[in-house]
Amino acid sequence: VVLILSPGERSRIDALGELLIAGPGTRVPLKRLATIAPSEGRAAVQHESGRRRVAVTFNVSGRALQATVGEARRAIAARVRLPAGVDVAFGGEADAERSARRELAADTVVALALILLVLGLAFRRRRYPWLVLAGLPFCLVGAVFAIGASGVGLSLGALVGLVTVFGVGARNSILLLAHYEHLVDTEGLPWTRETLRRGAAERLVPILMTALVTALGLVPLALGLARPGHEIEGPMAVAVLGGLATSTLLNLVLLPELVWRFGGSLPVPAAKG
Length: 273
Prior knowledge:
With 273 residues, this protein is mainly alpha-helical. The protein is built from ten helices and four strands, in the order αββββααααααααα. A two-stranded antiparallel sheet has the order 1-2. The protein has a two-stranded antiparallel sheet with strand order 3-4. A hairpin with a 4-residue loop joins β1 (20-22) and β2. α5 packs antiparallel against α6 (156-186) and α7 (193-202) packs antiparallel against α10. The longest helix has 31 residues, at 156-186. The protein is rod-shaped, with a radius of gyration of 32 Å. The N and C termini lie far apart (99 Å).
């Protein structure tokens, strides 16, 4: 029951005791039914699923959210003895991020399987889809370094950035491998290191343009990493920029060597009469 009195009566405790409470056939003053005294207490009692709930909120700065929550769980389990009927549950952004991580991991596995299926149908050489996947760690090197150097931690935004840069890196690998097939199958070039170097040189401009256009669009987000509202976009941009740098370089330098070692000798098509 909430009772709001006029401003002149709110500070008079004796006046509160004279308030009349309706009873069966009569009215009695409140001071005969209760002891009136000033005290401090909760303005509202919250309930959830039929149980009382008290929310304790905190913000995290300078470290990963999940690491902070994990440390809080361990500290409460070791130092706090809860009475019967009382338990602790962590919710809010931490719980939402944990659920999103699980969904992202499952979606990534499904996406990789579909990518392998599509690449197996697109390429004539069965080893090429695996070479595309072998190029994905090239993205991981720069992304992890950028995440560590910026101090953003492995947050949900950083994980989204990793998945995004994997897509860009896979596209660059596909461009290069498809051009190798074109040089050998269509133009009839021999399977030599010189052919691999020529293919990398001819794909240099498209791969660099893809990386530069993506990077230019993400630089403003990375520079505003500490601004409010950029908790997802900022770490994502940092991870993508770091992954693009190493993916672009290593795709043009190391992927041709992997193709030479593991791609297998490519047959030269027979000349048409």
